[in-house]
Design a protein that fits this description.
This protein has 166 residues and is an alpha+beta fold. Helix content is 20%, strand content 33%. About 5% of the residues have low confidence.
Length: 166
């Protein structure tokens, strides 16, 4: 499967990405980052100007996106690789569910902030219904499932930092 994905012959689902993430000890954001993305901004004059001014502007049109072919789940990678946390905006369509194995959380700390809609987050045996403005800081690694049981899209931010490998 990894070989097919690398050759562009297959588009992985969110479930496959979760399993690969756990096996390779990489966050989903790291798996989806294009090769060389960490230095792409520094090679342009605009990138050099932004750095000399103390910041970096990345236009919405240049923000990497990935869509799950099974559920329509959309990920926009808001932060660049040089930022100390991976910030991802997720749009989960109505009826979509995305499960991740516990191993996908073994090396990261993660916070979820719901922007709009409702998110049902299964955290091991626990179930949490989150609405706009609610946050959930993930604890110990457990199997988790993100669901949208509502009639409208659910948008949320996922903020991830790497922790020590167990």
């Amino acid at each position: 499967m990894i070989s097919k994905i690398e050759r562009g012959e297959s588009s992985p689902t969110a479930v496959v990405l979760g399993k690969l993430s756990a096996a390779l000890e990489l966050s989903v954001s790291e798996l989806l980052a294009p090769a060389g993305q960490a230095t792409a901004d520094s090679d342009t004059a605009a990138g050099a100007r932004a750095r000399s001014a103390g910041g970096l502007v990345r236009r919405g049109a240049d923000t990497p996106e990935w869509r799950d072919p099974d559920t329509g789940y959309l990920r926009r990678q808001v932060s660049t690789p040089r930022f100390p946390a991976a910030v991802t905006e997720v749009t989960l369509p109505p009826g979509a569910r995305v499960p991740y194995p516990a191993g996908a959380y073994a090396f990261i700390a993660q916070l979820v902030l719901v922007l709009s809609g409702q998110l049902t987050l299964r955290d091991g045996p626990d179930r949490h219904l989150l609405a706009a403005g609610d946050t959930f800081e993930l604890g110990e690694p457990r199997p988790r499932e993100f669901r949208n049981d509502g009639a409208a899209d659910c948008r949320y931010l996922v903020i991830v930092t790497r922790t020590a490998t167990p």
